Amino acid sequence: MQIQTDFLEEARRQAEICNACRYCEGYCSVFPALHAERAFSDGDLTQLANLCHNCRGCYYACQYTAPHEFDLNLPQALANVRQDSWEELAFPRAAGKAFQKNGVLIAIVTVIGFALLFWAARALSSAGGEGFYAVLSHNAMVAIFLPAFLFPLFSIAVSLRRYWRRVDAGPFEPAHLVKALKQAANMRNLKGGHGDGCNFEDEDRFTHARRAVHQAVMYGFLLCFASTSVATVMHYVFNMPAPYGLLSLPKLLGVSGGLLLVVGCFEMIRLKLRSDRSLGATAAFGGEMAFVGLLGFVGFSGLALYALGQTTVMPTLLAIHLGAVLAFFLLTPFSKMAHGFYRLAALTAEAGRKG
Amino acid sequence: MTSPDIAIIGGGNAALCAAITAVEAGARVLILETAPKSYRGGNSRHTRNFRCMHHGPLGPLVDSYTEEEYLADLMKVTGGKTDEGLARLAIRTSEECLPWMEEHGVRFQPSLSGTLSLARTNAFFLGGGKSLVNAYYRTAEKLGVQVEYEAAVTHLELDEDRVTRIDYTQNGQMHTIAPKSVVVASGGFQADTDWLARAWGPAAKNFLIRGTPYNRGVVLADLLDQGIEQVGDPTQCHAVAIDGRAPKFDGGIVTRLDCVPFSIVVNKDAQRFYDEGEDVWPKRYAIWGRLVAAQPDQVGYVIIDAKSLELFMPSVFPPIKADTLEELADKMGLPADALVQTVSEFNDACGDTSGFHPTELDGVTTTGLNPPKTNWARPITEPPFYGYSLRTGVTFTYLGLKVDEHAQCSVGNRPVTNLWAAGETMAGSILGQGYLAGFGMTIGTVFGRIAGKEAAAHANSN
Ligand SMILES: Cc1cc2nc3c(=O)[nH]c(=O)nc-3n(C[C@H](O)[C@H](O)[C@H](O)COP(=O)(O)OP(=O)(O)OC[C@H]3O[C@@H](n4cnc5c(N)ncnc54)[C@H](O)[C@@H]3O)c2cc1C
Ligand code: SF4
Ligand code: SF4
After folding, report:
1. Residue B141's pLDDT is what?
2. Bridge partners for B183 per DSSP
3. What pairs with residue B184 in β-bridges?
4. Considering A18, A53, A85, which residue would you say is the last residue of a domain?
5. Which residue among B110, B127, B134 sits closest to A27, beta carbon to beta carbon?
6. What is the pTM assigned to this prediction?
7. Does B131 lie at the interface with A, CB-CB under 8 angstroms?
């Protein structure tokens, strides 16, 4: 388990300069954690890297950025370590290595997802089913999606365990997780230390754009997820199988979530395109963009399915939507999606360190 | 812009405060900054705090800090060499500056770790001085101030009591403008080491410059040559002892070393030369710059042992480390025998160390040693041993333009009708020597705003 040493060396060099400076102490939770150390182990750096959410405040505020010989670019240094940590800690590792940075591979997996679903629809269609289940029987859906859902969960659990060991966090305590969840829920750190937001799409201007967009993506995703969960409960517990009416809970959650997700992903891509790539992990830019695109497409195809569910294109749309969902689930541990889990782990570990 | 109403020379804190004030008063303002955009902001980009009077809690500041207390602090560090009228003006106005700074985009934060002693007196910038400079540029440009980078002012043409034109070069081309009012905010001359050497003697060639390489005093020299009233002693500069491995320019805050009180400091002959335990940082921080400047080759060496390593703020470059004093001497280029002897004499002079207290004057002293170490005197015995080299780091110079309470310059006994100065370039009008942490930004903010206001009033009525 060896994160590229040159990334670690560079992050260590910069962290030592920051530790003698401390001007950025108020921006985010990275700096208080950094200033608590005198020397930085690989685990410390991995933890710092996962506490950083690349708001870039500390880059634009830094008096030592290039052309200064100290050549500070902490957002980039931490992004490289962070990106590498997600690859190294992934289970299976090879999948992390393959997908994190590779937008083309993500697209290929998505297309394979489509193909698989088309094939399934043709081979496993059920004569008796209603609505979507006429295209693909309920049992077939479960047979495909249950493993596709459980495997990523298992994979992430393994990764988080690896993370916990690597950063040498203390015993796990639920109270620390609760604290971390609270911070994540309102993305406190994305407000910057002063509440003016972060620097992203327009050099040193502070805005709330990135936080707002990220909130839209996260809550959009959570609403869609809630929609599916509610539907599952309705199906199994209350014996109320799909299709559901317009004002049913799954539809309300799904449509609002889908809209948030599409708008959020679209805006996120626009922000990313305007941002300075050299302040992030440049190598991962394509992979990140492809992943955001895929997530947005999941939302979009879901909405399309909702709008055109009663028409003849429904079976095609269903296969496309489910194909995208399948790709998304399977890629979760190996794509930018993993960052949410690592970040939560980092915040939890930090809460523990502070006692 | 053909000719603006007001030209402001410099692009640091004082210049920006003047520009914002002037543009808000309705004038067309041009900033001429000699640095490229990436290095804009002069020494202001290296700062971290602003000293501010206040009656009761204000922004990040707790408690209160009165005019009299502030003035007394200032008098103490300058040994009374202070223009009391201008000092009081700066101190009194500082209170209204803090909310003004916030309104114009500056953000403050609670005191940084390691500087809690300043929580009452100094307001710290979130992100440091460069974030302050960025915020001011954003605000100024939004208000319509035009900014030219890499625009080096070379000459101000003085006709009796009026500046008639400004010459500057940009991209190898000469430009001339004739603004109605001119504000000089281009700092001191410390980055011109030839000038420093003329004032200080050749030793100054070995000094490091803590801040921007662009403050070369070009405009200052040009104006003084034309008889503009000067103030301050050219041989005076504020200097501290910094890490000897720091870059020649722009090393900034990270090159400071806080370990002197826990060390012995020797010169290149491995001889001690001053009481390392005289006082706590930051009070005695400044004298070591001069002490080191007076040693052969303008260099000093700090020696500590393992038990003191974690008692001070981490250094930007790791210390030189060795298992024996001989090896340390070797690595640092010191005569080994002499170092061993100096350390053993020091160790023999140490007494009871049970009262050692790293953050207070603990009275743990040597006996019979010359020079003595009067606090924190613990023998240097525990390997590994660590060392740092020390050099003189110049913060700023005191020679400057003499101004009155309107920040206006004068020639002979008359004011120059359209010339004002703010910031480091006129700080000598207030401080004759010494320095109080956070006062540089106070002077720049207070007098920058005054200069901007006066310059705009003049431009608007002409
Ligand atoms: C490392 C360091 C830390 C410091 N920390 C603090 C602190 O925490 N608090 C505090 O109060 N003070 C601090 N000071 C002192 C403080 O930096 C100064 O008092 C203050 O910044 C002066 O502001 P100014 O605008 O006058 O000069 P500067 O900010 O130096 O601006 C001068 C400007 O003039 C430009 N210029 C120079 N020559 C020309 C020319 N010929 N043509 C056009 N432009 C020109 C320069 O490029 C620069 O932009 C610190 C200084 C240093 C070096
Ligand atoms: S990023 Fe730059 S300004 Fe911020 S703490 Fe690090 S060295 Fe200091
Ligand atoms: S980029 Fe933002 S979150 Fe990351 S270290 Fe810098 S200030 Fe903190």
Report:
1. 97
2. B8, B420
3. B9, B421
4. A85
5. B127
6. 0.94
7. yes
